[in-house]
Amino acid sequence: MRSEPLAGLPVSARAASLLEEAADLLVLHRDFAAAVERCEAGCDSLGTGTGTGTGPESPAEVKCSLCVVGIQALAEMNRWREVLSWVLQYYHVPERLPPKVLELCILLYSKVREPQVMLEVSRSWLRDQTNKRLPEYSSLLELYLLHVLLPLGRFEEAEELVRGCDVLESEQQLPLLGTICESRSQWVQREEAQSAAEEQQDAATESVLGALSQKLLTMLALLRRALRSMSSHFYLLPYKKMLLATFLLYLVVVRLDPASPTSLPFIYKLVQLFRQAWAAVFSPIHRPPIQD
Length: 292
Prior knowledge:
The chain has eleven helices and no strands. The protein is mainly α.
């Protein structure tokens, strides 16, 4: 959706009209890509010369509102990684970010659990002397403390920031220092609990590995006994008798003539010897007993 050409309007009026279009596209039509396009067109039309006015229709406020709508549209498209670079292309340095834009960026990256993205940007903004005179400075410092420093475990830096801030009164510093102390205590408890859980997991893993190793050793011992028993069983077999019987059988079949009368006594003795060898091989020692 695009309105009629706005070339005849003043710069601020064109930007305000694009802001209205972008808001409608974001809220009513849910066309987030088109909303980002309107915001970019509005910011480009304003350029860097946004002036110092503070009214709702001033170029600075219109540009700030365009960035707010653009941030929301990018977040809706799951393009939150682009938000900070997208904003900085219109303000160039972190120190010039409007408080509303900085607040929205801190909350956004805190929600997606990437607070480290705002670490340097927020630090630079808070160090700027011009920003310290803004009425939103104290609330932004507290927001930075709660959503960036403490989730990252930077407790010493948080204490130094609070104690060294001349904008905060002593009655404002005490609650923040108490919050830092409580957060540090919770952080230590979480680390101890995590360490204990890891130790228990390691102990369970070692126990399982120990049990498996013991089972493996038992199986190997049983296998060794079985092999030893089989080898001793085969050693008991009368190999010499079997070989002798086989050789004599070869002589009878191949070398002797069974029809010859002189061969009958020898064949009879050979059959007796073969029966003895057969009985010795398959004696009760080498075969399981047969039950009736």
